[in-house]
């Protein structure tokens, strides 16, 4: 069980920890040393799952969450690692990676995302030294890092339960927390937002794994592309090159990387775009000019074939056009 330490000399009794803790660990109690004043107390410490939300919200940096070495251990010492991918599969992902990078002229690596179900072995990939949000791990993977994150490595209460790593905390299930953050107008709007987003069954996923596509250590469920609108436009056209179909995307500005880039492609089998959300834009170095696409692995062969065809002429011609503005 994590230990919730509160430095009482720093606590000013503002109650932010009480409001923002998704599992209601804190209460404000009378301060023995000052009549009428209050201090935070971790009265339900056993409920803490070390999400660090209170640490981020406390204005005086009074809270510290301490986890033991056993709590951060995700694999039995004797548990064998998952075997590496067969060479043929590795070569396929390397080829997809090269085609995406070269034809689209991507600046960032496409990212392989795997949701490793409960009971399956973990690949031999490093876990982060600090807790990360799923969106932060994705942003690191686009720069070349491979990151394995069991539940205890995840920092975001939203993303962690949405991706099936934990239960949904009560204040998230009720929508109450989104009003605390002033992100929605009413509790009904918050409930609607929660009800409309997909989530995987509680604790059905053992860990998330992200890595540059060419370094995937496990068959990816979804491939994420972080790119400019023009580059994602060509990916849409690649996907409809043989069918001419249009797409219905699910975008909201809430839960971009966990829901829109990962879970919607994972659960529907269709690719989706995302404009990012306030969470991932505040918690990472993602540029304001970038957006996201999540592509289920099963859709990649058709998309890559279409992209290769568009890369022969259409993309080159469009990018090299000379625009003459109308003489108004
Ligand atoms: S948020 Fe920090 S300062 Fe405010 S009551 Fe909690 S511990 Fe005290
Ligand atoms: S770490 Fe998360 S669960 Fe634990 S007390 Fe802080 S906000 Fe609550």
Automatic annotation (TrEMBL):
GO molecular function: iron-sulfur cluster binding; metal ion binding
Source domain of life: Bacteria
Keywords assigned by UniProt, alphabetized: Iron, Iron-sulfur, Metal-binding
Keyword Iron: yes
Keyword Iron-sulfur: yes
PANTHER family xrefs: BLL4979 PROTEIN (PTHR37954), DUF169 DOMAIN-CONTAINING PROTEIN (PTHR37954:SF3)
Name of the molecule in the record: Uncharacterized conserved protein, DUF169 family
């Amino acid at each position: 069980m994590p230990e919730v330490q509160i430095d009482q000399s720093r606590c000013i009794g503002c109650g932010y920890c009480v409001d923002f803790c998704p599992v209601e660990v804190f209460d404000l109690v009378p301060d023995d040393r000052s009549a009428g004043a209050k201090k935070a107390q971790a009265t339900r410490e056993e409920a803490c799952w070390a999400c660090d939300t209170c640490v981020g919200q406390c204005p005086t940096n009074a809270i510290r969450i301490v986890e033991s070495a056993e709590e951060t251990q995700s694999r039995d010492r004797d548990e064998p690692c998952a075997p590496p991918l067969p060479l043929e599969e590795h070569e396929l992902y390397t080829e997809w990676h090269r085609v995406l990078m070269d034809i689209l002229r991507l600046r960032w690596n496409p990212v392989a995302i795997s949701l490793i179900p409960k009971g399956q072995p973990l690949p031999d990939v490093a876990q982060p030294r600090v807790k990360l949000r799923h969106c932060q791990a994705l942003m690191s993977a686009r720069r070349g890092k491979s990151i394995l994150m069991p539940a205890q490595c995840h920092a975001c209460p939203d993303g962690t339960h949405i991706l099936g790593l934990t239960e949904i905390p009560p204040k998230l299930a009720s929508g109450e927390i989104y009003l605390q953050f002033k992100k929605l107008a009413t509790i009904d709007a918050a409930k609607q937002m929660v009800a409309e987003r997909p989530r995987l069954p509680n604790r059905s996923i053992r860990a998330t794994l992200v890595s540059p596509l060419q370094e995937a250590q496990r068959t990816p469920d979804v491939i994420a592309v972080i790119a400019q609108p023009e580059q994602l436009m060509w990916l849409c056209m690649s996907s409809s090159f043989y069918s001419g179909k249009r797409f219905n995307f699910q975008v909201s500005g809430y839960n971009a990387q966990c829901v829109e880039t990962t879970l919607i492609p994972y659960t529907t089998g269709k690719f989706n775009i995302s404009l990012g959300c306030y969470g991932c834009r505040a918690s990472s170095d993602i540029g304001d000019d970038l957006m996201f696409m999540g592509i289920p692995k099963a859709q990649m062969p058709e998309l890559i074939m279409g992209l290769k065809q568009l890369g022969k002429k259409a993309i080159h011609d469009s990018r090299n056009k000379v625009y003459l503005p109308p003489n108004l």
